[in-house]
Amino acid sequence: MTTTSAREEATVSVTGTRTAPVRPARPRRPDRRRAASSLPYLLVAPAVLALGLALGYPLVRQVLLSFQEFGLAQQFGQPPEWVGLANYEQLFTDAYLWRVTLRTIVFCLVNAAATMVLGVGLALVMRAMSTPVRLLAQTGLLLAWAMPVVASLTVWQWLFDTQYGVINYLLTALGGDFEGHGWLLRPLSFYFVATVVVVWMSVPFVAFTVYAALMQVPDELVEAAEIDGAGRAQRLRHVIVPSIRPVLMVVGLLQVIWDLRVFAQIYILQKAGGSATDTNLLGTYIYRLGIGGGDFGTSAAVAIFMLALTVVLTAPYVWSMIRQERTEA
């Protein structure tokens, strides 16, 4: 009996019916789905690693510095002294820190709100403009946004100059008593000038971003609401704003972060005549403690406190975005 006939006989069942021969099981191939799902993480890993090294080391160094006494002596080679929470205890018992914190929060919220209102308003106006007028407006906004901070502040200082400022001249010509008025000498008027500068430099970003989002809103949706009898305010509230809400949330979050850590505008205006003690925000306060006073340990503690404050102020925005993503999913 041959080998072939033996195999055929082995496949015959007891009832006499022929069954298919049993084949050996093939080895399983690796799961392609699992490999495909892990591929994005592998591609992002190098960038995340580089970002973690670039941002993680300075943050860890800042945290360690906040627990040390690091002054001018340490810059010349003397080892720093570990003081634990002494820097934080000194700060939290200092009434001046809380005054600066309150100023910073109020300044941040006022500037962020004004920037969002003006930016969204300009975006809505640009949506209704004709093409030539819109291009002209966008060019002006782009130039204002691209202008360097120092150059723009030089112009604003000249506009609000005490003796030769255009603002004082125009207000005096209109009948006001503003001849020789020092805008930077008083804290309230100082913050008014700073708010004008910060908002003027931030509005173009909001306007461009929101305008791009408005262009993605379907015209049919707006026209359907208009046919149903919705007015302009109702269309804006119930159709347009819900459609661009994710963009508004992200832009608002960025504005809060940027306005909370504003530094250059305040510092340059202080150099132009403002009182540093009465107009310090957290950014300039950290600079004057560290670079100006040589107390880098306390300066690092204020920086960590500012980081925690940023997390607290931005947490509602982040939570709202996460909740909206979960609702849409």
TrEMBL record:
* Compartments reported by the entry: Cell membrane
Q: What are the protein's UniProt keywords?
A: Cell membrane, Membrane, Transmembrane, Transmembrane helix, Transport
Q: Which GO terms describe its biological process?
A: transmembrane transport
Q: Which GO terms describe its cellular component?
A: plasma membrane
Q: What is its main location?
A: membrane
Q: Which domain of life is it from?
A: Bacteria
Which residue ranges are recorded for the region named Disordered? 1-33
**Has the keyword Transmembrane been applied to this entry?**
yes
Regions annotated as coiled coil:
none
Transmembrane residue ranges? 39-60, 104-129, 141-160, 190-214, 239-258, 296-319
Show where the ABC transmembrane type-1 domain sits: 101-317
Q: Where is the composition biased (Basic and acidic residues)?
A: 1-10
Please name the InterPro entries in this protein's record.
MetI-like, MetI-like_sf, UgpAE/MalFG_permease
What is the protein's membrane topology class?
Answer: Multi-pass membrane protein
Give the family this protein belongs to, as stated in its UniProt record: Belongs to the binding-protein-dependent transport system permease family.
Q: What is this protein called?
A: N,N'-diacetylchitobiose transport system permease protein
